[in-house]
């Protein structure tokens, strides 16, 4: 295993932690800056929009740079953004800092996925991408709870200081250990944009957005579902979230290995599993043990899709791997926002928390239909992983 892959995973850990830890710190941030909880919640939305909007622009802005230089520059922006968060004196400065931090997110994961895939033989590419994204899943398992605990004990700014330090370590690792490929093809801006003309790439991005929407329709409201329907205590919710994090990590690893063998079959199987397990939660959520088992299986199925989705867009957009990989991260964040809205709408219209898993299952079925259309259009050759 190349050490550079671990450095990419560490970078992903830092980025994932800074994205999600704010959710656990919202009460502290709101109280310190004198804003409401919903007002502080816009710091989450602002970050997601920063990722979605900034991803394609940053990909194009770094298109002329070698991939190593691009990753180093993006990590530098990440460090500056977190430093500004730690120093923020008011809400507006913190919002600005969050958006600055978000600008690097999509491009880093997009370019980093391409770099990770190129560090290993062709038949190991999905596994390499999965290893990088393990950093993101570990951010949810360890980074978020530890960052929240640190922020509650020493002030929310201390969390961003800690993430800044991790970012500096990752930056040094990227400079020191990430190989610089001198035979790397120079990117042609027109060729990058021309790669977006095919229907396959847009279907693939739609697939990612629907997957994310399905996942976050349920994930966003899992805590109130556990508390109000299953009857889990606040402490029990924390342990359940840890169990979900372990499922996400396991799914990421399994998904990478499966996608190396049969890309389309992996995606089809994952979306069927998500639809079935999400729907099952509507009935299993009334009892603790069945709920825990269902959520673990759901998390495992959900993140098994991540490496496959990332390799899939590169397969269809191989003429512009940096751009399409970055757009895929943007699509993921658009789905994030869509899923939260769908789940909230279901609850607001009086259908109840137990209807949220049904909505998540319906979105997974839509993702499945788009997958079938995508690979039917691409032909049988696309049922195997890409070798280019």
From TrEMBL:
Q: What is its main location?
A: membrane
Compartment(s) of residence: Cell membrane
| Keyword Lipid biosynthesis recorded | no
Q: Which PROSITE patterns match?
A: MFS
CDD domains to which the protein is assigned, alphabetical: MFS_NepI_like
Give one Pfam family, short name only: MFS_1
Membrane protein topology class: Multi-pass membrane protein
Q: Which UniProt keywords apply?
A: Cell membrane, Membrane, Transmembrane, Transmembrane helix
Parts of the chain that traverse the membrane: 40-62, 69-89, 95-116, 128-147, 159-178, 199-224, 236-255, 267-289, 295-317, 329-351, 357-375
In Swiss-Prot or TrEMBL terms, this protein is called MFS transporter
């Amino acid at each position: 295993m190349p050490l550079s892959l671990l450095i990419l995973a560490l970078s992903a850990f830092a980025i994932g932690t800074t994205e999600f830890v704010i959710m656990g710190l919202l009460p502290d941030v709101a109280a310190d800056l004198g804003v409401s909880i919903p007002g502080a919640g816009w710091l989450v939305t602002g970050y997601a929009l920063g990722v979605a909007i900034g991803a394609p622009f940053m990909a194009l802005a770094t298109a002329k740079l070698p991939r190593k230089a691009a990753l180093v520059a993006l990590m530098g922006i990440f460090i500056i953004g977190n430093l500004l968060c730690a120093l923020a004196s008011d809400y507006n400065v913190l919002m600005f800092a969050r958006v600055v931090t978000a600008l690097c997110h999509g491009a880093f994961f997009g370019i980093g996925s391409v770099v990770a895939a190129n560090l290993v033989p062709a038949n190991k590419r999905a596994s390499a991408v999965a290893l990088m994204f393990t950093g993101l899943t570990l951010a949810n398992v360890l980074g978020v709870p530890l960052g929240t605990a640190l922020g509650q004990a020493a002030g929310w700014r201390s969390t961003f200081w800690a993430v800044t330090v991790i970012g500096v370590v990752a930056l040094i690792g990227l400079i020191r250990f990430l190989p610089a490929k001198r035979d790397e093809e120079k990117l042609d801006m027109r060729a990058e944009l021309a790669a977006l003309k095919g229907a396959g790439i847009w279907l693939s991005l739609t697939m990612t957005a629907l997957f994310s929407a399905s996942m976050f329709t349920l994930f966003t409201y899992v805590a109130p579902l556990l508390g109000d329907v299953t009857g889990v205590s606040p402490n029990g919710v924390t342990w359940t979230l840890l169990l979900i994090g372990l499922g996400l990590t396991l799914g990421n690893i399994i998904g990478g290995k499966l996608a190396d063998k049969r890309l389309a079959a992996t995606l089809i199987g994952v979306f069927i599993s998500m639809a079935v397990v999400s729907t099952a939660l509507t009935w299993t959520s009334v009892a603790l043990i069945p709920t825990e088992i269902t959520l673990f299986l759901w998390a495992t199925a959900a993140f098994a899709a991540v490496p496959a989705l990332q390799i899939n867009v590169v397969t269809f957009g191989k003429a512009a791997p940096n751009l399409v990989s970055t757009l895929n991260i943007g699509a993921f964040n658009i789905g994030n926002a869509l899923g939260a809205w769908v789940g909230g709408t279901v609850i607001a219209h009086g259908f109840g928390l137990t209807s949220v898993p049904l909505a998540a299952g319906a979105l997974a079925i839509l993702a499945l239909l788009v997958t079938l259309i995508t690979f039917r259009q691409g032909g049988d050759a696309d049922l195997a992983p890409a070798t280019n």
